[in-house]
Amino acid sequence: MSVLVLTLIILVGSYCAGLLGSLTGLGGGVVIIPLLTIGLGVNIHYAIGASLVSVIATSSGSAAAYVREGITNMRIGMFLEIATTAGALIGAMLSLLIHAPVIAVIFGVILIFSAIMSLRKKDTTVLQTESPLAQKLKLNGTYPTPDGEVKYGVRKVGGGFFMMLFAGIISGLLGIGSGSLKVVAMDSIMRIPFKVSTTTSNFMIGVTAAASAVVYLQRGYIEPGLAMPVVIGVLLGALTGSKILVHSTSSGWLRWVFAVIVTILAVQMIYNGITGKI
C-alpha cells in the first residue's frame, strides 16, 4: 500500500469518526483508535498519540464558540481541570508501562460503557440547591435559554472532582476524551444541567489531551504523517456533524447506530487484546 493511499484511507476513516463523534457527543477517538489498530495494524501507542492531537484540535475549535455563547461554566472547568490534567499525566505514564493487549481490553470495556451512556436518557431537571463547598468556590452559575437565563446549583463537588481524576487517567491511558465518564461526574454526581456539562466538558477535553500528548510526544509516539490526516478528517467530520445536528429533529436513531458500531469495535478490541493480536 502506497503512502498516498494509506493517507486517503485514514482521512476518510477519520472523517467518519469525527462525524459520528460529533452527532453523539462522545468524540471521534472511540472510532479512530480501533480503525488504526484493527483496520490498519498501527501500533496502539501511535494510534493514541494521533487521537490525542485530534482531540486537542476539535476541542479548541468548538469550545471557543460555547464560551462566547455563555453556556460553558469557566470556573467549574478550571477547577475540574486540576483533576483531569493530573489524571491525564498519570494515565499517559501508565500507558507506557502497560502492554498493548491490556490497553486494548481496557479500551474495549470503556467503549461498551460509552455505548451504554450514549443511550441513557438525559435528566433535564435543573437544581437550584447548592453545596457549601460549591458556594465557597463560586461554582454555581447561569446559562442562556430562549426564555431568559436559568440559574443552577452544584452539588457533591468532592465526588465530581475524584470522578474527573479517574476520567483523566482513562483519557491519558486510552487517548480519548472520556466524555461518558465526564457525564457521570457532572450530570449524575454534581447535578450540573446537561447543556452546561456537555459544553464545559468540551472546554476541558483539549487541556486534558494536551497534558497527555506531552508525554506521548516525548516518547516519540506522535507521528506527524499519521496525526495530520487524522486531525483534518476529524475536524471536517465534526464540522459536518454539527451542521446536521442543527437541522435534525431527533438524534435518537443516530445514538443507536453509534452504540451498535462502538459495541462491535469494542468486542473486536477485547478479542484482539485477549488473543494478543494487537
Automatic annotation (TrEMBL):
GO terms for cellular component: plasma membrane. The chain crosses the membrane at residues 32-57, 78-96, 102-119, 161-181, 201-218, 225-246, 252-271. Coiled coil: none annotated. It is found in: Cell membrane. It is a multi-pass membrane protein. Keywords: Cell membrane, Membrane, Transmembrane, Transmembrane helix, Transport. Pfam families: TauE. Belongs to the 4-toluene sulfonate uptake permease (TSUP) (TC 2.A.102) family. PANTHER family: MEMBRANE TRANSPORTER PROTEIN YDHB-RELATED, TRANSMEMBRANE PROTEIN YFCA. This is Probable membrane transporter protein. The lineage of its organism: Bacteria, Pseudomonadati, Bacteroidota, Sphingobacteriia, Sphingobacteriales.
